[in-house]
Amino acid sequence: MELFAGSKARADFDQESWRSFLNLVPHLVATCTACWGLLHLLLSRSVKAESFGITKAKEKVCVHNNMISTTHAIFSFCAGVVYFAQGWGREAASEVFCFSQFFHLVTAVSVGYILYDFVFLAIYFEYMKNQLATILAHHAIFIFTYFLSQYVPCTLGMILYFWFSLTEVSTPFLNYNWFLMKANFSKELWKKNGYILLLTFGIRWIITVSSLPFLWWYYREHVQTGKIYDQVAPKFWWLVDGYLFFFALGVGGLLFLNTYWYYVLLRKAYNAVASKPKKS
């Protein structure tokens, strides 16, 4: 590929398999998008929100979408666990570029979910318009990151993708929190889930912060030494700089957002405890 043509050092990874797999990307993404849509259809037919005491139109719509969100979060978290448990992250960290079929398959499932959500937002725009700006911003960044990682197979993006997949550990409990608050369940159950949410979001914040030492190590190991530039054609060095800047900015942005959201959760928890009436 032209990205690596004329480089000082050969990009030592299976470029032929990588190129071949890129041709499958549109088909994979289309299939995954259709599967997410089918899952939503099945859930909307088989799970009736009214049976949980949820009758408002907007809330009924959110029930099924939150189920899809939870399913994707569990999938992403498990994929991250498998990736690091197999030692693939450690292997990739020693390389600058690599091809991982597992990475391409997992990201195809996730981008399929994002595209499904675009369709969901378009269909239920009236109910979701208040959250539209933040959701679209998140999804647009994800789509851009996805295609950047597919066509620039740098190990930095791959490792960070699976690392931040681990932060999905809190998403199911966030969705449960909303559901238990709206449905006919005891307040005690909602409170217990809230404690688990605080714990898992704390883990989410720790995972986010711990990406910073890796980012610094990667910079010193592959960027400062010039390894990453040696394997790329000089006319594409600007692309490398943009790639590195984008991921550094992305990590900083996620750190800011997760810190802010955790602060909001902790403040709500504190207010709930502080306002609890004391027994006489």
Automatic annotation (TrEMBL):
Primary localization class, coarse: membrane
GO BP terms: lipid homeostasis
Localization annotation: Membrane
UniProt keyword list: Membrane, Transmembrane, Transmembrane helix
Keyword Membrane appears in the UniProt entry: yes
Gene Ontology CC annotation, any one: endoplasmic reticulum
Superkingdom per UniProt: Eukaryota
Protein biosynthesis recorded as keyword: no
Topology in membrane: Multi-pass membrane protein
Domain TLC: 58-274
Transmembrane segments: 20-43, 63-85, 105-125, 132-149, 155-174, 195-219, 243-266
Signal peptide as annotated in the record: none
PANTHER family listed in its UniProt record: CT120 PROTEIN (PTHR13439), TOPOISOMERASE I DAMAGE AFFECTED PROTEIN 4 (PTHR13439:SF0)
Name the record gives this protein: TLC domain-containing protein
Species classification: Eukaryota, Viridiplantae, Chlorophyta, Chloropicophyceae, Chloropicales
